[in-house]
Amino acid sequence: MLPEYTGFFIPIIILLGIASLTSILISVFKLRFLPVFAVEIIVGIAIASWFNNYMAKLEMTAVVEGIYVLGLSMLMFFSGYEVDFDAFKDFDLNQDNDCKTCKNRRCRHCKHINTTKTVLTITVLTYLASFIMGFALSPFMEKNKFVGIILLTLLFASTFAGFVVPILVNENLHGTVIGKILSAIADLSEALSILFLSILMIAKNIEPKYWLIILTIFIILVIFRAFKKLKIGKVFGKITAGIDHLATRVIIVMILLLVLLSDLSGGEYIFGAFLAGIIVRQAQFSEKIIHGLTQIIYGVFTPMFYIIVGTHINIVELFSDSSSILLVLLILVGLLAAEIPMFILLKWFKLNTILPSIVLMACTVVVPIAVTHIGGPQGLGVFSAQFSDCLLLASLLVCIVGSIIFSINFPFGNYRNKMKEVSTE
Asked: Coil, strand or helix: which one is 423?
């Protein structure tokens, strides 16, 4: 019999213990080229049968789902925080207009890239390509295919900025023109997909009295954006100096409050968490505060969340049907095909720069998790459990392949070391 007050510790101990062991194994076997979240999901898949049965036996399923919601909320918060509105600037590709690092010498087109126009064009075309991919997979949907196509469009068009941007930083590409473009596309595509997911849920479930709540949230966002110049976060930091962790507590309370308001308003709670991230970034809290928050969230909540995501995938049942393998491959092709508009960048960059960029932009995990949460059997019922699992597996495979490509120093054109950022300030 479980202790009356401490029984809920059991799933937390198991999940954090497995997450810690996973990190140790990655270090021991030198698997650092693999994304940690991918390994955690795979471990979750491996223990799914035992873990789910054990939690059901202990009557701790509700606790596990609570950890799942909290972890997803915190992950979405950082997805919102990583959206950089300052990324939409124009950059000179070659200040001297001498295209030694370009495919053509003395190429006039390489003098200047309209970054905003390029990013928006690629993003719009990616959504169109994603719509085609979503329509092509409509025969696999259970019902309400129009909503299903929209959900898949948002999935195929999204990019996991929290995964892509660190890779660009690690490869010393973040300060280059191609790095800036890829970062901007990743931020914009993820932000739009999450925003449209929330709008979709509101359109399907909203009641008139809740519009005021949504309007209030957007007003808060506008106010924080306007107050950016006043550096509210820094002012708050000075006021709370000497009071341990007060700013961290305030941020977490704001996240949970916006998650609750978003859920009450008829939209998905992920939108509230995402919005909280954008607000905190605009408020400009100190790096120390954000660093402390990062350690808590990425050290505790998200590892447990990714393992739970894995436990939701019944791999044995999934691959008992041979059609699942074909479906995973089709979705994998769809994720890559949706990024075909990236070939627009051939105007300025070489093919061996564009190809790895396509793989990188196809990496997505957060939006697929949200889409399967919304459209799966426990949500709108648009997708079957099999189809939902295939979506998650395909997105996971893309991220693993993408990380491996960059870990083996896949030739990224001539821009890995030679390109230098030239601001137009």
From this structure: strand
The domains of the chain are located at 67-407
Q: Which fold has domain 67-407?
A: Na+/H+ antiporter like fold (1.20.1530)
- Evaluate whether 163 touches 399 at the Cβ level (below 8 Å): yes
Read off φ and ψ for residue 113, nearest 5 degrees. Answer: -115, 125
Q: Which long-range contacts (CB under 8 A, 24 or more apart) does 194-197 make?
A: 194/76, 194/79, 194/80, 194/270, 194/271, 194/274, 194/366, 194/367, 194/370, 195/271, 195/274, 196/150, 196/154, 197/151, 197/154, 197/268, 197/270, 197/271, 197/367, 197/370, 197/371, 197/374
pTM of the model: 0.80
d(CA 355, CA 128) in angstroms, rounded, equals 20
In this structure, what token pair is assigned to residue 61? 């399923």
Q: Where are the alpha helices (DSSP H) in 171-266?
A: 177-205, 211-226, 232-239, 246-264
The closest alpha carbon to 76, from 248, 315, 233, 259, belongs to 259
- Locate tokens 């495979």: which residue? 397
Q: Tokens 């915190």 map to which residue?
A: 74
The predicted-structure confidence for 151-189, as pLDDT tens digits, reads as follows 999 999 999 887 888 778 777 777 777 888 888 898 889
Would you say 394 and 335 are in contact if contact means Cβ atoms under 8 Å apart?
Answer: yes
Query: CB of 232 within 8 A of CB of 224?
Result: yes
Which residues share a beta bridge with 113? 91
Q: At what angle do helices 246-264 and 287-296 cross, to 10 degrees?
A: 60
Rg (CA), the chain: 22
pLDDT in tens, 395-412: 988 888 887 777 665 556
* Helices of type H across 265-384: 269-283, 287-296, 302-311, 315-319, 323-337, 351-361, 366-375
pLDDT in tens, 230-243: 555 566 666 655 56
The answer to whether residues 372 and 392 touch, using CB atoms and an 8 Å cutoff, is yes
d(CA 171, CA 169): 5
